[in-house]
Amino acid sequence: MTGKKIFVHTFLLIGVIFSIFPFYWLVVMSTNETSAIFSFPPRLTFGSYFLTNYNNVMENINFYRALLNTVMIAVVSTTLQLFFNSLTGFTFSKFKFPGSKALFYIMMATMMIPGQMLLVPQFIIIKELDWLGSYKALIIPGMATAFGIFWIRQYALAIHDELLEAATIDGSSKFGLYWRVALPILRPALAFLGITTFMGVWEDYLWPLIVLTDTSKFTLMLTLQQLKSVHTGDYAMVMTGTLLATLPLILFFLVVSRQFIAGIMDGAVKS
Amino acid sequence: MKLKNMSSILLALCLALVVSACGQNDPAPSSNPSSPANESGSNDKITLKMWYWNGAISDSTIEAAKTKFPNIDLQAEKLPSGGDFLTKLTTTLSGGGGGPDIVTMDSWISTMLTYNDKFVNMYDYGARDIQSQYLDWKWKIGATEDDSYLIGLPIDVAPVVLYYRADLFKEAGVASTPEEIKAQVKTIDDYLALLKQVKEKTGSQSGTLVDLFRSIMGQSSENYFDLEGNYIGDKEHVKAAWDASVKAYQEGVTFPYTSDSEKNAAMNNGKISSFTGASWAVGDVISGAPDTSGKWNIAYPPGGVGNQGGSAMGILKSTKYPKEAFEVVKFLVSPENLLAGYKEFGNYPSTPEIYDKPEMVNESEFFGGQNLSSVFGEAAKDVQNAHKDSRDELVINALSAALGSVDAQKKDPEQTWIEAQKQIKRQLER
């Protein structure tokens, strides 16, 4: 038994080291000079240049403005997606209406189209709507996604019809069924969707690059790219910027994931 | 219960935010449709939007332009560089709107000539008057084949020169001063003979065989397609470059690094004693090989001069003020302002008249106090300009991958050449 435990733990430890190392090195690089990054063998200990690098980042880009922009977009997008995806997913799973099956499959088919192909058509739509350069172009096209709806629908299939019938008899409206009965049950599914959506919006690069025109509205990922120049670069500064841009995401994940794990337990006990 | 209340409040807040964000931003994209380009009265400022990237043009130059043109509100947007910039530009062009007035273009400007109807013809606004200030080969990159349409004014050039370790070359007993190298190492064969001796005496090598191949092709007056668009990548000039690279590899004078950090490490510990690199590689060597400071030199390259990079600046047709935009561009790329760019980022100017100015002198401690500018200036005037095609990249990538496999997977070079050509032709037929 103990032998097996040691084996499992060594295995896990190796996995942890492998996945933590890139992040560790990011921190190391952000505390060193650029020349130290390229020295051989590479330096693996912390340096004392973090403040210098930090000041360089702040001098070159408007970091906090970009952070605020990104947090705003990520929170709004995630909330809207959770709402619309869960509403639609729940409807597809529990209500039969003419053409519901066909509609669902058509929606699923949109997942087959590669995103790059949609770039120009979507750009033209946004341009015709005169939304270029505004956050609407980022938020509204992503308000509901085929994957999100599919994900919620699969989860919602497990909700017992008796539960919904009982609520209806008690006088609940259709929306009430969703809001009061389904949503609490769907919490674990929403947790996963929330985390991936938030991360996706945080890291999204191509679409914001194309539709945003005003540098002051840029998201973090776009702003970070401004740190890079074409040929030579202060990599220590770029790494510091990257670290600063990643920290809020990690923080969000740590705080939220605990909530959501609690949510999963809730569901388990109730059902 | 509490959580549910919270979530409904959050949802309402988000919807409100979106709606309010919509209202706020509406006027931005359609900035001033009500004030057409009437004779710009001295009071009303016109707005010119410009796209550039970090390191394309000096921020101090942009500030100078704002002072020089008080009637123009120059909104310079610093965008991500490289392929991202190109993606944004091509999407905007094919989407048909929302672009800037002034746009910076990298060496991919030649691919933009296909869309020259989207750009203002700068010859219509007096570009001919300043043409003589710029390197002729660089100027032509932004012009159509018949030289009737110009889509961009030159900013900088990036002549490829030979970077080498003067101390190791001396130790090996080969030509080791820039003058000696220029006089004695004239052809690629001379260079290979030199590399062989350096390898025997010091154990140090040159860049990869793919680097060498690209560098030789850069010196060629023909690329992979002729003027009619026929594929010539299987012809003698390409095969000769291929064979020379293979020969260098077989003689053991190439160093097979696979990443920049590996290359830096090899430079830093003296395993790489020479490579051909563009003028912007100066910064790479300095930051990549700090322990070798003072030991490097640069020299006029053996085999001829290629060019790797360098940008230009053009005006989109969608602008309302082409005349004013042209004046701004003309100012931004004027010889004095290009000098500022050289001082700031090492972008070598495309205006030969300033090469001999005392301000251009760039004596680097890292290069043993050598004046780098004079070598770049001499090389810049001799750059070979080959006809470029939008499919060049496909061919270069395929040939590079094949050549790399000769080293990495020890493939037979002749067989690999034949397979690579087959693969390229198949891809071109699509």
From TrEMBL, chain A:
InterPro entries: MetI-like, MetI-like_sf. It is a multi-pass membrane protein. Belongs to the binding-protein-dependent transport system permease family. Residues 67-256 form the ABC transmembrane type-1 domain. This is Sugar ABC transporter permease. It comes from Paenibacillus oryzae. SUPFAM superfamilies: MetI-like (SSF161098). The chain crosses the membrane at residues 6-27, 66-84, 104-126, 138-157, 177-198, 236-256. PROSITE patterns: ABC_TM1. GO terms for biological process: transmembrane transport. It is found in: Cell membrane. Keywords: Cell membrane, Membrane, Transmembrane, Transmembrane helix, Transport. GO terms for cellular component: plasma membrane.
Automatic annotation (TrEMBL), chain B:
InterPro entries: Bact_solute-bd_prot1, SBP. Keywords: Signal. Gene3D superfamilies: Periplasmic binding protein-like II. It holds the Pfam family SBP_bac_8. PROSITE patterns: PROKAR_LIPOPROTEIN (PS51257). Residues 1-21 form the signal peptide. It comes from the Bacteria. PANTHER family: ARABINOSE-BINDING PROTEIN-RELATED, SUGAR BINDING SECRETED PROTEIN. This is Sugar ABC transporter substrate-binding protein.
